[in-house]
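Structural prep section.
Before we set up the soaks we want a predicted structure of the protein with 3-methyl-2-oxobutanoic acid in place, mainly to decide which crystallisation condition to try first. Input record follows.
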Amino acid sequence: MSVHSEVKRITTNVLKSMKKKGEKIACLTAYDYSMAKLVDAAGVELILVGDSASNVMAGHETTLPITLDQMIYHAQSVVRAVSRSLVVVDLPFGSYQGNSTQALKSAIRIMKESGAHAVKMEGGKEIEESIVRVLSAGIPVMGHLGLTPQSIYKFGTYTVRAKGNEEADLLKENAKLLTDLGCFGVVLEKIPRALAAEVTASIDIPTVGIGAGSGCDGQILVIHDMLGINKDFSPRFLRRYADLHTEMTNAFTGYIKDVKSGDFPSERESY
Ligand code: KIV
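Run finished without errors. Recording the tokens verbatim:
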């Protein structure tokens, strides 16, 4: 029997034993109650309340504008829906980079006000003190390396990271550092699959890939992307499991037609 099917509630230890046993970890983002309820019931092990909410929920171009209060609002909605998955919440841009006291304060607010189970922070060595401080309060931390969207203005583009030796070596060092500090897992975003596989084999905490190939311990996708709600975003790593753009557009146009023609509501749909 698989580790995850035996447990009522997914914890960080469950994820670590899944890695040990070679069981893949399925993760998705969610930002609201209704979607999180579906995702949790389907059996996803980890739900990330990602700061991608800034893009897909609020319509911003980057993840930078979303605030700590807004992340807490999304996290509260997700936590209310979830009975089994581990809920991880992104510390948003500007809520932890200042210093470790700021990081701890922000992480405590997320845990206290939303009831989530862990936080995620982007970066390695440069945020080491903040990671240590948050961990010291008993808050599980997930790392995030490779393409870190909160640094988009430093990178300049959303292209694949760590293709060269120097950046790849730094990423390997940072993955080891996050492991040694006590992070329970790490997201690897948009890096060559050989590098992701090498990192995954070299550390004993789970790696969760997005655009990082099949060698990672788990995979994550942004829920709006995998449901095909947004037609304009088509990176190579994205597999669409539904075409909700078409389904929803058909539903809306059907409704408009029925309202205009007087077909809706019918007698049976009236009191
Ligand atoms: O914010 C987010 O959705 C993320 C995932 C892409 C990993 O960080």
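Observations: Residues 244-261 form the longest helix (18 residues).
Flagged for discussion at group meeting.
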